Amino acid sequence: MRLRDRVAVITGSGRGIGAATAIRLAEEGAKIVVNDINEENANKVVDEIKSKGSDAVGVIVDITKMDNAKKLIDTGVEKFGQIDILVNNAGLNRDMLIKDMTEKDWDDVVDLDLKATFFCCKFASQYMVERKYGKIINISSRAWLGNPGQANYSAAKAGVIGLTKALCMELGRYNITVNAVAPGMIETDLLKSHPKYDQMVERALKNTPMRRVGQPREVANVILFLATDESSYVTGNIIYPSGGRF
Ligand SMILES: NC(=O)c1ccc[n+]([C@@H]2O[C@H](COP(=O)([O-])OP(=O)(O)OC[C@H]3O[C@@H](n4cnc5c(N)ncnc54)[C@H](O)[C@@H]3O)[C@@H](O)[C@H]2O)c1
Question: pTM score, two decimals?
Fold first, then answer.
């Protein structure tokens, strides 16, 4: 029970990597604030956590709006008294060549993958500074290094790396660590709903030493390490659960 008495906010935790992380952290004793725009999925995760003997609350808000991000963090503090861990996981992609990419395709991805991460960091860190304790884990992607057809996503995920490095410098003196996790291909509904799923996986596996896609729990275990005090002197880092693909 490495996270007993800790409180974690996990954005986009109704399914996929976020849900696996919520459940993994709860198994270690953390109380979880489950955020999603999909109420049914969020409620299922809350119920599963409660059935495992930990506590959770669902906050159904779209975090691309600043007031909603504030509400998410404030609700966590009202319900559980503190925020120790923030996992900025909610993300989406809208892949296409730049010639076809509209302003909306750009904004939708950047607003969720980057701007909402800024909002949640901004509000959660204020509580963390007061208590001189905090673990911020930002979910980037190995695609931050660049992928054809992912200009918006790669730019947003590269922005997440810059944000992580800047906040590491700004918040370290308050005993707050800020790290990024940059997964390779992870078998989630997001990946499986990709119109070129088979083609994409086939191409990626050629450059993946482990020759398989990853599972959400394999990312959740990395996030768990960064959320516990076992990583107390690790900050400003990027960890790649990617089967060796860079
Ligand atoms: N699956 C992969 O291969 C992979 C690889 C690298 C990085 N990632 C990143 O990991 C994170 C999770 O990916 P996933 O595959 O689990 O995705 P997913 O689509 O399965 O889950 C994302 C969740 O975010 C929620 N969400 C969407 N918009 C939201 C909003 N405005 N406010 C709150 N919640 C919202 C969705 O409802 C969904 O439940 C994302 O940041 C993604 O970019 C995924």
Answer: 0.99
